[in-house]
Amino acid sequence: MPPPNSNPPPRDVRMRGFSRRSTVEDAWNWIDQQSIHVPAEALDTVSVGGRVLATDVTSPVNVPAFDRAMMDGFAVQADDTLGATPYNGLPLEVIGQALPAQPIGDIVKRGQAVRIMTGAPMPDGANAVLQVEQANISEDQVEALDAVTPGKHVGKVGEDIAQGSVVLRSGRRLRPQDIGILASIGVAKVSVFRRVRVRVLVTGNELLPPGSKPEGFQIVDSNSPMLRGLVGRDGGDVTCSEIVADDPREILAALKDDVDVILVSGGSSVGQEDYAPRLLAEHGELAIHGVAMRPSSPSGMGRLGERLVFLLPGNPVSCLCAYDFFAGRAIRALAGLPTEWPYRSRHLPLARKLVSMVGRVDYARVDVVDDRVEPMAVSGASMLSSTTRAAGFVIVPADSEGYAPETPVEVFFYDR
To answer: What is the pTM of this model?
Structure first.
């Protein structure tokens, strides 16, 4: 008899089927409870493209740090140009020149002007720039041919970025223009979340490595290169990707790799050689196995030590769907990114009925023609080409039998 309060041994579902399936919401709740940010690291600003900020960045300086010309022309006192027109040029004495990083020391007085280039410091006394196109120029004199107002074509101190203001918020994935901003305020190093370390483990005696030519009764592994791209999109790095035979000893050894997340593709269901769920339950925690959804119902997830482990079906569309629903959500959270779907979406009307079954979530591939949603007539989870022919997908919730024609639905587009 087992001791009191001991956990029962995990049920072996191989060749028996699932007694029950968890809901998608159950799986999301479990993921959200497990997913704690990976540690941050300080990197040189020039090398943080695509990384996620771990802390807010506050500007230590004003940008610009001085009043500067925003056009080539003449620094003037605006009042000296009142009434100027192409037919009534107002003469001003040119007393010198200001270039970028080469200010003029003289003070501009009434009736005077300084030749100035874009980016040059504004001279004291001047409060506007008369564009060169609005001037009639001679050697030591310029005629204003148009009036300018105070502050015209002048970049004021702190106009772009004010000292002490938050420039970029934590959780932002850094784009090229963000790196430019960081450089402009003199930030040499940035605190970003470490990339999430992911191992991709593909199981199956019938599989050939990516790049091979299919032969005999063997098929080429398409899941690992697809997963590598998805992981990179979501803030992770695939540190190892390999095909492992349907051997419990080899699978268990791979599950113990020192990474943050392990993705097991294949061997996640209830077949005779689906070892991964049993191994995870015996040596760690199998929190969820079997989800009420189509495709991807054999999906599972749990922990082995500090590692999050996701059991993804081997069929390619199911693998993609399970990754996006579950593993991708966890990797994005670990990486400091929003957990929401990483696809742009639009609400568009259905061209015809979209059928579903109450009690399960449906991942329906669709096309979009003339801004109307066309459900695709595809069956089976092995047709990866259906995702390349589709414009995107629609998620039908478990409490719905589908949608009637003309119903607006949210389409998530694959093009991002």
So the answer is: 0.83
